[in-house]
């Protein structure tokens, strides 16, 4: 039986969930929010690939990498006031983050990423989706041989991700834009990248053309009827549905509180700058490992992203964050000397204490589902995550590898 579904959340997970729910014959209302720029994806690197699925960059493992917190120019920042007021979250983060590096955690991440890569290519071919997607691989660079050796040994031991170790001369041959920089590197041939801003815009177009009602407003309140959700209120209108899916990133915490629930997401802030219409740029994404900065070519633009910064939702990033990005970019790419970024932005990655997404039916309300908490991998997991959410809402089963994403672990 076809249903009336309400999807809340304007990011890529909400977009793909809406699409697949409509494709399976449901009537879908997608509450995408007032500002497309509010999605964390707007400021993201737009990287997609199995090598980026796991392990997370080692500087995000705060327990084992406290050295980052004492570097003046560190891309890892921790607001002490925020930490003290969220000690239970950080305690759980320290205890359970290993889950994402377990065999089941790795497999689930890999399946989400490779599934999304396939879906993105299908959309580009089927809908002519213009998102600057490229399959050139990714180059991870290092100033020192020691750090590169450590990571390459870990990759070799794991045996899952394809990679190639490069000496400085080979690194420069692979990416001439690095110029005089003598950097060693690891090349990941299976990685891809896209323009996340174009992805968000294109998915709104495709969803409208698919017959989805796109509501560009926010949620104001919710109405329950016992153990079921009756409707949500957006711009004063009561929007009813048979099933409700919340995929609103950090906004999911606010919506959860409307249901009397506490979803344990912490905002991992990331910042970006974009150079438009640059005459020179690298032809593939480059990670400057010790600086924690990614440089990503997107059509005629060049974007730089960095920082994993735990702060409150009302945090206002200081100018020095963007100056750091600008300095690293001009140091590595001399053709950017004297060129000012055309724009800068920041976004809040929704991070769970165990670094795993939350996907499935609510343990509290029969017709409420969650698809959120992807942290830094929202774009990377979006297509497959949306497909899985639609299967669950339609009453189907998904692979057991995703059981560890169940909302019941957080009692939501």
TrEMBL record:
InterPro entries: FAD-dep_OxRdtase, FAD/NAD-bd_sf
A GO cellular-component term linked to this record: cytoplasm
Domain FAD dependent oxidoreductase as annotated: residue spans: 5-389
Residue stretches in coiled coil: none
SUPFAM superfamilies according to UniProt: FAD-linked reductases, C-terminal domain, FAD/NAD(P)-binding domain
PANTHER family: SARCOSINE DEHYDROGENASE-RELATED (PTHR13847)
Name of the protein this chain belongs to: Glycine/D-amino acid oxidase (Deaminating)
């Amino acid at each position: 039986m076809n249903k009336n579904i309400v999807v809340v959340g304007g990011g890529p997970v909400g977009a793909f969930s809406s699409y697949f729910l409509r494709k399976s014959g449901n009537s879908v209302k997608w509450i995408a929010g007032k500002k497309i720029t509010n999605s964390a994806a707007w400021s993201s690197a737009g990287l997609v690939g199995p090598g980026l699925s796991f392990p997370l960059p080692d500087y995000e493992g705060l327990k084992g990498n406290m050295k980052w917190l004492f570097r003046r120019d560190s891309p890892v920042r921790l607001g002490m006031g925020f930490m003290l007021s969220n000690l239970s979250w950080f305690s759980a983060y320290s205890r359970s983050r290993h889950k994402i590096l377990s065999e089941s955690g790795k497999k689930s991440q890999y399946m989400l990423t490779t599934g999304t890569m396939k879906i993105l290519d299908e959309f580009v071919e089927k809908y002519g989706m213009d998102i600057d997607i490229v399959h050139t691989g990714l180059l991870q660079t290092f100033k020192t041989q020691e750090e590169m050796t450590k990571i390459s040994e870990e990759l070799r031991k794991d045996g899952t991700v394809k990679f190639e170790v490069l000496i400085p001369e080979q690194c420069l041959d692979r990416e001439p834009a690095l110029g005089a920089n003598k950097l060693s590197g690891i090349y990941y041939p299976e990685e891809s990248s896209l323009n996340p801003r174009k992805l968000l815009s294109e998915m709104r177009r495709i969803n409208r053309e698919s017959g989805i009602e796109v509501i560009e407003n926010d949620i104001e309140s919710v109405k329950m009827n016992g153990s079921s959700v009756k409707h949500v209120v957006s711009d004063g209108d009561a929007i009813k549905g048979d099933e409700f899916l919340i995929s609103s990133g950090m906004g999911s915490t606010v919506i959860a509180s409307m249901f009397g629930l506490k979803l344990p997401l912490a905002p991992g802030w990331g910042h970006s700058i974009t150079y438009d219409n640059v005459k020179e740029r690298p032809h593939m994404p480059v990670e400057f490992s010790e600086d924690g900065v990614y440089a990503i070519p997107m059509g005629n633009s060049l974007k730089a992203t960095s920082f994993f910064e735990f702060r409150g939702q009302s945090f206002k990033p200081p100018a020095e964050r963007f100056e750091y990005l600008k300095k690293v970019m001009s140091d590595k790419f001399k053709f950017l000397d004297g060129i000012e970024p055309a724009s800068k932005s920041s976004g809040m990655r929704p991070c769970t204490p165990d670094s795993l997404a939350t996907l499935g039916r609510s343990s509290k309300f029969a017709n409420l589902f969650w698809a959120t908490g992807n942290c830094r991998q929202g774009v990377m997991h979006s297509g497959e995550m949306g497909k899985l959410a639609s299967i669950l809402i339609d009453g189907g089963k998904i692979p057991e590898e995703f059981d560890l994403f169940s909302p019941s672990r957080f009692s939501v």
